[in-house]
What does this fold into?
Amino acid sequence: MGSTVETAVRPPSYSGPVEWLRRNLVGTWYDTLLTLLSLWFVFVALRGLFAWAFFSANWEPVTGSLKLFALGQYPQEDMWRPGMIVLTVSFLMGVSWRVWGGTVRTFALALAVALGVVAALPVEMRLPLRLWFVANPALVGLGYLVGWSRVVRSRWVLLGWILSFVATIILLNGFKGVSWLPKVDTAMWGGLLLTFLLALVGIVASFPIGVLLALGRRSSLPVVKVFCVLFIELVRGVPLVTILFMGSIILPLFLPDGVRIDRVLRAMMAMTLFAAAYMAENVRGGLQAIPLGQVEAAKAVGLNGLQTMALIVLPQALRAVIPAIVGQFIALFMDTTLAVIIGLVELLGVGKAILNSKPEWLLLDTEVYVFIAALFWVFTYSMSYASRRLEAALGVGER
Amino acid sequence: MPDETRDQDIIICRDVHKWFGDFQALCGISVTIKRGEVVVICGPSGSGKSTFIRTINRLEEHQRGDIIVDGIELTNDIRNIAAIRQEIGMVFQQFNLFPHLTVMNNISLAPIWVRKWPKPKAEEITMQLLERVGIPEQAHKYPGQLSGGQQQRVAIARALAMQPKIMLFDEPTSALDPEMIKEVLDVMVELAQSGITMIVVTHEMGFAREVANRIIFFDFGLIVEQNTPELFFESPEHDRTKLFLSQIL
It folds into this structure.
């Protein structure tokens, strides 16, 4: 038409919360109506919840049993051991924050702030406990400062975490006949401590086993392949409850006299094997997504089979299935509650025990279970948040 | 002297056969390639040319016949295969770069893990190779951030990083946009003039005419005809070759 070149003008993009509200909530008369209706509905629902939580609920079983929720029956005089472990975690979180940054920062800060706030609460608390709460944020800060030092490398931090995991188990367990670190029977372990241990051991141990099973399932050696397929399909065909029962009741029948595997350890083994079978299938999905060309290219530059797997195939395969793996970890974390039925006193078990401890608390089950649910939600949500951040950092889906 | 003449032949193939199930892909290939020679292999699709060069570094296993690379016979012995793969660099049609590694790590990976070079040395060589293929500024990007032509040049640098005696190219420009073919061919021409032994499966007849010492024409898993570029293009002997050339030129 004309000889002038029309320069296209980019339509203005709207931003800001006020603009968003105007466009989406009160854009038209029916938008406004829907908004008002929704607000009224939310108000009614929340009013009931708040009224219950702050006025009619009796939180005594929760507030009066925090030690039980945290540690179960772990002996009072040995409470310094889990205390030491949390202090170590705080310190390592600080170091990791400086060295790795990213999401670790969020978690380190959350840890420091949460424990710092508890330390400042105007409630009755013994002085050593209050000092312990203060020490945690301080150690996060100290760790952060240590992380500045140039000698602290990523691999040392990783090693620190692994060592602390091993030390945790040793410290909690203690040794028979050692006066300053006596053995604490696992029957005394409980609460959040036991829930964490079951989940952590399950996650840490099932991951490598699952990867090996997945690789074994694709192996060209028939014996390895058949074993892996059989294991995976057998375990996946059976509910976790059944496996826990097998571990706790049937397994001891097959063991020779005198050989006794600890009850908690049996539960850990059962959960690990169960999780490993599912992990194997997740990892196999990732392995199948890797194009054959990647393996050919790795062979062509001279990498051997192990190097090809460790440097080329697995990093890509695992990265592709992070969401599935974390989803499975979350499920495993919540499945720890099933250990109740074989008599372990983890978080849910503690809740039940507390309800049964006093007749006047028997009817307060709503309060106790709401508290437990909230605790679980905090931890599982943290895990899925970390997973999303990890995906973003590793660039899943943008090749 | 017989020893010397044998040393001049870097790849010797004798009666190589290859089956995929019941389908016979190679029906007795016998060819000898001299040190420093640039050989172009062409032919219609499905004629076995890609399969043939993939048997040379054992990405495909041949079922009959002998392949001897730089004096090492290609057998099922894993040490022989490893030794031969270290002598041979390969460039693929689909690049096959490692998407989770930077350009730098793509190239320095094999020298570090296979040749056991210290990291600084491997990275220095990597930068030299990136200079050579003309993209040193891309060293710290990921393959997904590069154009097809740049990716293929990284792939060439990756193959060269192991300092191979032989380079295999499996249709290196077939997956590229027309504009990017030239930048890859330029690198290959420079490489051919540097004296390395090259076997190139390609449809780029201009490249063949310019740098090849010999052109081999494949059809139905057999070598139909081989000749110098001049004779191959000016006076092809077989009707099949004439037909192919009339369609492609």
